[in-house]
Specification:
By secondary structure, chain A is mostly helical. Chain A has one domain: Orthogonal Bundle (ABC transporter involved in vitamin B12 uptake, BtuC), CATH 1.10.3470. Chain A contains eleven helices and two strands, in the order ααααββααααααα. A two-stranded antiparallel sheet of chain A has the order 1-2. Chain C has one domain (3-249): P-loop containing nucleotide triphosphate hydrolases (Rossmann fold, 3-Layer(aba) Sandwich). Helix content of chain C is 37%, strand content 25%. Chain C is built from nine helices and ten strands. Chain C is globular, with a radius of gyration of 18 Å. Classes of the chains: A mainly alpha, B mainly alpha, C alpha/beta. Chains in contact: A-B, B-C. The interface between B and C is large, with 40 and 51 residues.
Amino acid sequence: MLTILFDGIAYGMVLFVLGCGLSVTMGLMNFVNLAHGAFAMLGGYVAVLAMQRLGLPFLASLPLAFLSAALVGIVLERLIYRPMYAKSHLDQVMFSIGLVFMAVAGTDWLMGSTQQFIRLPVWLQGRFEIAGIGIGRYRLFVIAICGLLAVSLQWGFTRTRFGSRLRAAVDDARVARGLGIPVNRLFALTFALGCGLAGLGGALGVELMGLDPTFPLKFMIYFLIVVTVGGTSSITGPFFAAMLLGVADVVGKYLVPQVGAFIIYALMVGLLITRPHGLFARARA
Amino acid sequence: MSAESFEARVRQALYAGRRWHPVEIGFWILAFAAFLLFPRHLLLLNEITILALFALSLDLILGYAGIVSLGHAAFLGMGAYAAGIFAKYVTGDPLAGLFVGMAAAGLLGLLTSPLVLRGSDLTRLMVTLGVALILYELANSFGSLTGGADGLQGVMMKPVLGQFEFDIFGRTAYLYSLSVLFLLFLIARRVVHSPFGLSLRAVRDNPLRASASGVPNGRRLAAAYTLAAAYAGAAGALLAQTTQFVSLDVLDFHRSADLMLVLIIGGAGYLYGGLVGAIAFKLLQDAISSFTPQYWMFWIGLFLVLFVLGGREIIHGAVKTVAGRFARFGRGGAR
Amino acid sequence: MSVALQTFELCKNFGGITATDHVDFSLAKGARHALIGPNGAGKTTFVNQLTGVLKPSSGRIALMGEDITRLSREARVKRGLARTFQINQLFGSMTPLEMIALVTSERLGRGSRPFRALDLDAELVGQTAEILTRFRLDDMMDRTIATLPYGKQRQIEIAAAFAARPTVLLLDEPAAGVPEAERRELMQTVAELPDDVSVLLIEHDMDLVFRFATRITVLVNGRVLAEGTPEEMARDPAVRAAYLGESAHV
């Protein structure tokens, strides 16, 4: 049982890394980017290709996944995302769904529709037992990396100049602009960082979540739950939301496999009904 | 000007909104004439008709009541499964099945309407998406009833009105679907030009002023949502009956997303948007899939992106110009 | 004189801020009453509580002797309490004709009828025409509201509230932002409202207040500071200090 809990935590950690970028961009520009999962998929495929074709070791492929997703993020933000900020939520949703569809079909065309795998290095394979709890080495590795990331993100968000500017801009972009904070550049950087993290999460998640061209569609709802439940104003909110989701999903699927993802969706709808306002748009004074 | 003559002017102006335009009459004559004009494409025409009904349903809530939805497939699927299961276990009579499909979807709409009454557009998008996903999971889990991933097999339909047997060319299917569409369209047209329809537009335009004018916003939106759900259910029932098969695909996310695209192409809020959009969408799909069948999804995505980035203004500008020309022509003809 | 609208100890707190503080207020039947006070005095909060946009923290509201504190917005409208908004709240995509027809149809209880045609309803047509004529909107009834000049939009704002046939009409700064050229017509509209409608005017423009009102209540920091005839208020030293003196600098 505790082993399952442990798996759930690892899963939740990956979800956090995948979703936290989305929650910040949503909070900052009030922009709904359903295509966030496409960047995660990109990271996943980059890692897979780097290992299969270039023969890079697993650890080296991770930063590559981060960088490539971040780079594509910067370019797309500049070219096509920026005109979207002023449009309605409906338009933003349609637009990013369009991107998802293109990404899914494009990946299918380039890579084929088969499930992709990565070969983990030997030291990450298998599991060991501590006090009767089976602990997968790779899951422990994921928890360590993601935990480290969460801590440093929290530190960066609350303690650095970049973080305080970011928080000011999230609070009120117009006032922040008036104070001389370059909101547009800040957003581009954050967007890139968020995409990069998604890419990294995608690479880390290949082993846990699988990877095929439908990845952005399959996991779209998961990212949304992380943002919905966690809110957009902090790092800790999405973090706890992701942990909750990861554990609930893994445990739920283990205990009552027939019900499957049903619990998760019901949970989201329930939360949205009970707290319809305090979710995306934070309470406006 | 005397009070009576001004009253007459007011009456005339209110009548103008619901008057039948010659172009509208032409549209429906063409739709029925298509049965004779394109005898080899009746299956495609049937698909267009069903999609048009589905889009009409979304137009009722999006174009008139201003409710955004990313999960309209929930009602299509509900109608399809209800009609399919009813045909399999109770009776294969199409009209009874159509009624059951509409009632089931309408009931689902009524039950879920409290979820879309509150919150921002964003919350509505997420909630409707969530409801559709839940339904998908349910249909997948209750395989004994729905057939699960294999789809619902063994749906056998009786002849429509006991007379017209469904055939492999889609002759009966098209006329049946088109008749249902036309009838439901007439009702929808009546509804949007009624005091009830006017109050929906009021809520869409400005909920605060609507309630300050005595409109019970929540009840009106719930009624519109239920009606639209029943319409989507009718589309689902037609789909199940004319294909004699229901698969999980009817609840899939892409159904809802495609539907949005249909309405974006045609434009929302004048009832014909969904119909025009459905024709354009299906013809486009048909054309594209003839040379790249697998990657249709890519093109859908590209269209969505281009539409939002600015193509919509261009297309609707063109449509307006053409419509304006027709309107002048129509007015000239009416005089 | 009997009372049309009355509040008892009406309070509204936003967090630590008290927007209205135990307001006891009464509006006589057929009154021309003005509510004035400096910015942030709680005037709009007060109106929003009266009409049900905001829930009072404590206290009661009575309309024609009936407690309406817990009623929904639309239920209050049905009982004869209508309002205009400080910032235009119109149905931008409609024509003035449609907007007035909507309010009339809701008042006549037609709004839940999905199959009735608007033009075949003689009562609806007649009453809509009457409102359009009264508010001089007849020559532009077919144009989209959003395209009309601002002064006309203010006019529609009042017409729409009046179309609900209120016993009590709340006008929240009807002249706000209206250019000088269109002001006269608007003031005339307000002056021409029939006597049996009790009017509460919330206004900054002292010119309009003194021309229109026979009674004035001064609200400062959420409390009623003073109440009386325009002459009494103009003389009252506390009112001058709190409000009139301040506005003299503006």
